[in-house]
Write a structure and sequence with these properties.
Layout (H helix, E strand, L loop, with lengths): L2 E7 L6 H14 L4 E7 L6 H11 L3 E5 L6 H11 L4 E4 L11 H9 L5 E5 L7 H18 L12 E4 H4 L12 H7 L5 E5 L15 H19 L4 H31 L11 H29 L14
Parallel strand pairs: 1-2, 1-4, 2-3, 5-7
Antiparallel strand pairs: 4-6, 5-6
Helix pairs in contact: 5-8, 9-10
Length: 317
């Protein structure tokens, strides 16, 4: 099968018939073998009834329904597991992503031998309250992830080589960082394509400003897990050691200075009356706690069942 089109959705009953007919038309015009997987993330409207009706009239369309709303990441992860195509295209169900982009995305994956192509909505039809935070969010992600050639990490329109989606796990709200997850899994042939961003035709957006706060916290989480998930002592042990020695040498300096003052008969305050002494003790305590956290994290990591599971690309026997 050439293409799997994966569409996560939540309360999109109005847009689904138009979206599916559009995708089918594009597929037939370019003679692709395809499937369309619609993942209903616990919609409260009649989205599932619409999916059942559409699927009954087209054998290429399949549906997955969650009992409740788990979030876009869960819908994508479940959909990735169900895909069968050589190239997987993801897009939102609100008609803001154009299915006309599918052939060029497919071509970039197959002919340019890329792992992932991320859409870039260079011209957006969104209010400034969304565009300005989005620019800052994407800038921060580029700096922290090292993927400097992407301008829009959160664009729902993306194309993947099959091996990518079968090798990664998306959970929580990590759908914003799929390019980062793919890179840390060893798929570093990542490019972007300028895509059309259409104004919303039906309904309202399902995401608020809190997504930017959650997004930043998720970025810190995935950065830590990717770099130190199997070696937490390298982070906590280093920080703890530095903090402890800063406190230790500061306290030693204060103690030696006090002894010298007493020896030479110079009046000096008691150590317990100096704030710097308590700062030194606090540094040593925090350092010890960080080191202990790294030690415990290392023990948990070594006891994990997947401590020696790695992404193997090819083998020769």
């Amino acid at each position: 099968m050439d293409i799997s089109v994966l569409v996560p959705l939540y309360n999109e009953e109005e847009s689904l018939p138009e979206l599916c007919s559009w995708i089918v038309r594009v597929m037939n015009d370019h003679h692709f073998s395809y499937e369309i997987i619609l993942v209903d993330d616990g919609s409260k409207d009649s989205s599932w009834s619409v999916i059942e009706k559409i699927a009954s009239s087209n054998s290429h369309i399949r549906g997955i329904k969650f009992r409740r709303n788990y979030g876009k990441s869960a819908a994508l992860n479940q959909g990735f597991a169900a895909t069968k195509g050589d190239v997987i295209i993801t897009m939102d169900a609100d008609l803001q992503d154009s299915p006309d982009e599918i052939p060029s995305l497919y071509k970039m994956i197959k002919e340019d031998r890329l792992d992932l192509v991320s859409g870039w909505k260079k011209k957006r039809h969104d209010p400034i309250s969304k565009t300005i935070p989005s620019k800052f969010f994407n800038w921060t992600t580029r700096k922290m992830s090292g993927i400097n050639n992407l301008h829009d990490f959160n664009c729902g329109l993306k194309a993947y080589r099959k091996e990518v989606v079968k090798s990664i796990e998306v959970y929580g709200e990590m759908h914003r960082y799929i390019p980062v997850i793919a890179k840390w899994a060893g798929f570093d042939r990542i490019e972007e394509k300028v895509v059309e961003h259409r104004a919303r035709k039906y309904g309202i957006t399902k995401f608020g400003l809190e997504r930017f706060i959650n997004g930043f916290l998720d970025l810190l989480s995935i950065t830590f897990v990717s770099r130190f998930g199997k070696r937490p002592m390298h982070l906590f042990g280093l920080l703890g050691t530095l903090m402890f020695f800063v406190g230790f040498f500061s306290a030693a300096y204060l103690g030696i200075n006090k002894l010298l003052s007493v020896y030479h008969g110079i009046p000096a305050r008691m150590l317990t009356q100096r704030p710097s002494f308590y700062i030194s003790l606090t540094c040593m305590i925090i350092g010890s706690m960080l080191f202990l956290a790294g030690f415990l994290g290392e023990m948990i990591s070594r006891a994990s069942h997947d401590r020696n599971q790695y992404q193997v690309d090819k083998t020769i026997n």
